[in-house]
């Protein structure tokens, strides 16, 4: 896969204007967002829009989230380099690629098999070798590889998915949009204090496509 080097200048502008100016300060997150070529994850013909700060359509009626939201959710996960992370909602694979630049291992689950396949192929072509993708219902997580240091859900759930809470390590963080169907959700961060003790913080209002499935809509 050929990565267009001239896009680096747009990526730098995105980091300054859309991320740093809006309060993203975690150096590892900023570096990862500067490393991953977002133009390769958007639909053909939309590359020139890749570094604008809004979501863009991918196939199957889904979206690649806006750069600021990817950075904000990633920062909210409070990651370290030895962490193992589970992402629910692979979509284009962009957020998984960003996560993979920060942590040791990323697992990602996508409900739409065609999206899972194309994201997997794209990430392999780009040389990201610490990401595994599975097609399936991510509202139930991916228990085989858990427990996880952090879990991020990139689709809106009706309530905190219990299966995902159970797949967190002690001190693990779950960041997930929770709220009403196809309207505003609240981005929340749940933290596992001990076996059955969790704290939940509200971070900000967000708008995501629905999380479908057993613990989704
Ligand atoms: N993280 C993606 C990226 O970087 O391109 C954007 C994700 S998009 C906003 C939300 C994704 O969640 C869609 O691809 C959708 O198919 C997926 N999704 C919805 N319900 C799901 C479920 N139960 N399990 C896994 N993926 C699901």
UniProtKB/TrEMBL annotation:
Transmembrane segments: none annotated. It is found in: Cytoplasm. Keywords: Cytoplasm, Methyltransferase, S-adenosyl-L-methionine, Transferase. The active site is at residue 65. GO terms for molecular function: protein-L-isoaspartate (D-aspartate) O-methyltransferase activity. GO terms for cellular component: cytoplasm. Belongs to the methyltransferase superfamily. L-isoaspartyl/D-aspartyl protein methyltransferase family. Its EC number is 2.1.1.77. It comes from Geotalea daltonii (strain DSM 22248 / JCM 15807 / FRC-32). SUPFAM superfamilies: S-adenosyl-L-methionine-dependent methyltransferases. Catalyzes the methyl esterification of L-isoaspartyl residues in peptides and proteins that result from spontaneous decomposition of normal L-aspartyl and L-asparaginyl residues. It plays a role in the repair and/or degradation of damaged proteins. The lineage of its organism: Bacteria, Pseudomonadati, Thermodesulfobacteriota, Desulfuromonadia, Geobacterales. GO terms for biological process: methylation; protein repair. InterPro entries: PCMT, SAM-dependent_MTases_sf. It is an enzyme of class 2 (transferase). This is Protein-L-isoaspartate O-methyltransferase. It catalyses: [protein]-L-isoaspartate + S-adenosyl-L-methionine = [protein]-L-isoaspartate alpha-methyl ester + S-adenosyl-L-homocysteine. NCBIfam families: pimt, PRK00312.1.
């Amino acid at each position: 896969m050929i990565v267009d080097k001239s896009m680096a200048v747009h990526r730098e502008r995105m980091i300054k204007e859309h991320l740093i100016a809006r309060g993203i300060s975690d150096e590892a997150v900023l570096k990862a967002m500067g490393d991953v070529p977002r133009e390769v994850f958007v639909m053909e013909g939309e590359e020139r829009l890749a570094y604008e700060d809004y979501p863009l359509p991918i196939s199957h009626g889904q979206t690649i989230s806006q750069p600021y939201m990817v950075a904000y959710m990633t920062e909210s996960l409070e990651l370290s380099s030895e962490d193992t992370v589970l992402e629910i909602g692979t979509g284009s694979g962009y957020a998984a690629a960003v996560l993979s630049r920060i942590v040791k291992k990323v697992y990602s689950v996508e409900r739409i098999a065609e999206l899972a396949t194309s994201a997997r192929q794209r990430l392999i072509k780009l040389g990201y070798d610490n990401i595994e993708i599975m097609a399936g219902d991510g509202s139930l997580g991916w228990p085989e590889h858990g427990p996880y240091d952090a879990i991020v859900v990139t689709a809106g759930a009706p309530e905190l998915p219990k299966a995902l809470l159970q797949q967190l390590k002690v001190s693990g963080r779950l960041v997930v949009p929770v709220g009403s169907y196809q309207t505003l959700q609240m981005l929340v961060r749940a933290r596992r204090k001990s076996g059955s003790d969790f704290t939940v913080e509200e971070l900000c209002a967000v708008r995501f496509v629905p999380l479908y499935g057993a613990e989704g809509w």
